[in-house]
Amino acid sequence: MTFQPNDPGMSDLFTVRTLLPDPLPAEPFAMLNAWMSEARAEARQPNTNAMTLCTIDADGTPSARVVLCRGVDEGRGVLTFYTNRTSRKGRAMASNPRVALVFHWDHFDRQIRVEGRVVEASDATSDAYFESRSFAKRLGAWSSDQSAPIESRSELIGKIEKVCERFGVDPKNPPSEEASRGVIPRPPHWGGYHVFAQAVEIWAGEGGRIHDRAVWRRSLTPKQNADPMQAFDAGAWSATRLQP
Ligand SMILES: Cc1cc2nc3c(=O)[nH]c(=O)nc-3n(C[C@H](O)[C@H](O)[C@H](O)COP(=O)(O)O)c2cc1C
Q: Which intervals hold domain Pyridoxamine 5'-phosphate oxidase N-terminal (predicted)?
């Protein structure tokens, strides 16, 4: 909807367009999914599923890095990514499961911020995703103690050679992707994480002027359940429009 020029409060200086639905939808995940799909379809950036993940170390130090969103459960309001669990972010999430995520689609002038609680994905989920990765990536997961220091690049190459030896792979004559299936198991320190959203803020840029912005919040109550995707009872979303 576009406000008419004679709308009260309009001036020549500001454009006041309503970019998010008015009234706001009851929940934010349909819109999050739709924006991800639009970004993927337009493909104006290589990793349209890239999101900045913020964690808090045990001593309270915040840190941020990009990871790729590998799953959106619209019904549950959960986002999934994969990483090394002994990395800096993995250790941070083990000591403090509160995380924040940011998607930014620059060409669309859109941002989505998520705050929530993280739980480790099940072995079955992590195995299935690991198996879908390329051969080189599966080998790489065994070769890198992610975030740990290393003396030199050649020492890292030495580690990769050892991993090849361990799994009987000739790096000069690697198997095809098809033949390599089932050859390399998932390392025990590598797996998925599910972020249960507690707050989602959706932001649409209005030419650097009067942006449109809204936040949805809900409660999450931990519950005992062996399935990580059932780790919380979620309350209903409540939506609030914010000043830009
Ligand atoms: C576009 C992009 C995508 C990335 N995706 C992942 C990912 O899905 N998982 C991951 O562990 N690291 C990913 N990384 C690397 C991380 O940003 C980070 O460097 C690494 O995970 C180590 O972070 P940490 O030391 O804070 O644990 C990605 C980096 C970029 C630039």
A: 45-163
Does 65 sit in the ligand 1 pocket, CB within 6 Å? yes
> What is the position in ligand 1's atom list of the atom closest to the CA of 66?
17
> Tens digits of per-residue pLDDT, 78-105?
999 999 999 999 999 999 999 999 999 9
- Number of Cβ atoms within 10 Å of the Cβ of 23: 8
Whole-angstrom Cα Rg for the chain: 22
Kindly state the average pLDDT of the residues 194-220.
93
* Cα 50 to averaged position of ligand 1 atoms, centre (Å): 10
Residue 95 has phi, psi (to 5 degrees) of: -95, -25
Q: What is the domain partition of the chain in residue ranges?
A: 28-131+189-241
Answer whether 47's CB lies under 8 Å from 166's CB. no
Residue nearest to atom 29 of ligand 1 (CA): 66
In short, whether 83's Cβ falls inside 6 Å of ligand 1 is: yes
Q: 28-131+189-241 in CATH: which number?
A: 2.30.110.10
